[in-house]
Design goal:
This protein is α/β, with parallel strands linked by helices. It has helices at 15-18, 26-31, 48-62, 73-76, 85-100, 116-120, 129-144, 159-167, 186-196, 213-233, 255-265, 270-273, 314-322, 341-360, 403-413; strands spanning 8-12, 66-70, 104-108, 150-152, 238-244, 247-250, 278-282, 286-290, 293-295, 329-333, 365-371, 390-393, 398-401. It has one domain (8-413): Glycosidases (TIM Barrel), CATH 3.20.20. The relative contact order is 0.15.
Length: 419
């Protein structure tokens, strides 16, 4: 079976990871505060804020048909209720560039980073955050909606529970978020960051570390409020969110724990998806689960730069599990961090074989976006992990196309027939 007509063949980026100098964001402060857990600051990143036209043209030249990128809230609304016309004009031009080059844009309105002022108001644990986020989404979509056929309100709305499962107590984080870390070490860093943000540590609740159930409720309310605003001002735009879905593999004694972990990261978020047009599925590897939680990769297994097991079959497995949501799905992220580009190509090939099997079984999957278009800033790990199908020399900002990019582009040109 071939891929359906109109299948979206794309690559993805996130604003903070590629644009550079996102100085009004909470993460910029966290990266640049003494004692940070970030390996290095984002700095100029890939200078995509300046070089976006070059990058969009390159993706189209490769043969891709879509580009997923994010609009940065901290740029659009640098102070509460004050919107930047210049930032909106910039993102309009990014969208224009996509359309000029025949790329269908998919826009994410929140990809982990938030305005630094939001931390002064309590961040992603504050009850007023859904309304503030929805107002920002309304402004963007009222201005740009006709150019945006697909919009994801929030990237990985379930990332808090996922990080909690992976990190547990290793980061010494209390359930309500970063702001309650103990004094010394992490606490000293957060105190300094809170001072830089002109607030107190208990109010520093960035999205990526919003762990507790109250924060989950805030995030889900933010999505549903944003969806309502988008529906009103841009009714032709298809709306969804993305979830980081883990392929849990129970080992002996781990069946119940694996079931609980799936509920925490998928089932618990289903109420917020009611009324969405699609679900963005994001998966990278499997997780082995024992009675007490996660287990390491098997002895001798191939692992990536992220420490994940090389396991492209995870994508098919989570698509089949997520079909329970009853929504059309789009693979909004899937990829591998490696210095061996031949393994990246093989990973993509096997992952897409899994997508094709899902399609053959009647599961509605409308597209595949590789993560990431560019080697970029990978949050706390800095620039060491290389996910991109395009390499970036950050000293010169020179782009170098990898063979994996040519492989994905060739698939796109023939709609997967050469897989």
């Amino acid at each position: 079976m071939s891929f359906p007509d109109g299948f979206l063949w794309g690559a993805a980026t996130a604003a903070h990871q590629v644009e550079g100098n996102n100085v009004n964001s909470d993460f910029w402060v966290l990266e640049n505060t003494a004692g940070t857990i970030f390996a290095e600051p984002s700095g100029d990143a890939c200078d995509h804020y300046r070089l976006y036209r070059q990058d969009v043209a390159l993706l189209a030249e490769l043969g891709l048909t879509s580009y997923r990128f994010s609009v940065e809230w901290a740029r659009v609304e640098p102070e509460p209720g004050r919107y930047s016309r210049a930032a909106l004009a910039h993102y309009r031009d990014v969208l224009d560039a996509c359309h000029e080059h025949g790329l269908t844009p998919m826009v994410t309105l929140h990809h982990f980073t938030s305005p630094r002022w939001l931390m002064r108001l309590g961040g992603w644990s504050a009850p007023g955050t859904p309304e503030r986020f929805a107002a920002y989404c309304r402004t963007v979509m009222a201005e740009l909606g006709p150019l945006i056929p697909y919009v994801c309100t929030i990237n990985e709305a379930n990332i808090g529970p996922v990080v909690r499962q992976i990190a547990g107590d290793l980061l010494e984080l209390a359930p309500v978020g970063l702001g309650d870390a103990p004094a010394g070490g992490l606490g000293a860093w957060l105190s300094a960051a809170a001072h830089a943000l002109d607030t107190t540590p208990d109010r520093v609740n960035p999205f990526l570390f919003a762990y507790d159930q109250a924060a989950n409720e805030v995030i889900m309310q933010a999505h549903t409020a944003a969806r309502a605003e988008i529906r009103e001002v841009s009714p032709d735009t298809r709306v969804g969110l993305t979830l980081a879905l883990q392929d849990y593999h129970p080992e002996p004694g781990g069946q119940e724990r694996a079931r609980q972990m799936w509920c925490e990261t998928f089932t618990d978020f289903l109420p917020a998806l009611d009324g969405d047009d699609f679900l963005g599925v994001q998966s990278y590897s499997r997780m082995r689960v024992g009675a007490d939680g996660l287990l390491p990769a098997p002895d001798g297994a191939e692992v990536t730069q992220m420490g994940y097991e090389f396991f492209p079959g995870s994508l098919e497995n989570v698509i089949r599990g997520a079909a329970a949501a009853g929504l059309p799905m789009i693979v909004t992220e899937n990829g591998i961090a490696t210095t061996d580009d031949t393994r990246r190509t093989e990973y993509v090939r096997q992952a897409l074989e899994g997508v094709r099997r899902c399609l053959a079984d009647g599961i509605d999957v409308g597209g595949y976006y590789y993560w990431s278009a560019l080697d970029n800033f990978e949050w706390m790990l800095g620039y060491a992990p290389t996910f991109g199908i395009i390499a970036v020399d950050r000293a010169t900002q020179t782009r170098t196309v990898k063979d994996s990019a040519r492989y994905l582009g060739a698939l796109a040109r023939k709609n997967g027939e050469t897989l």
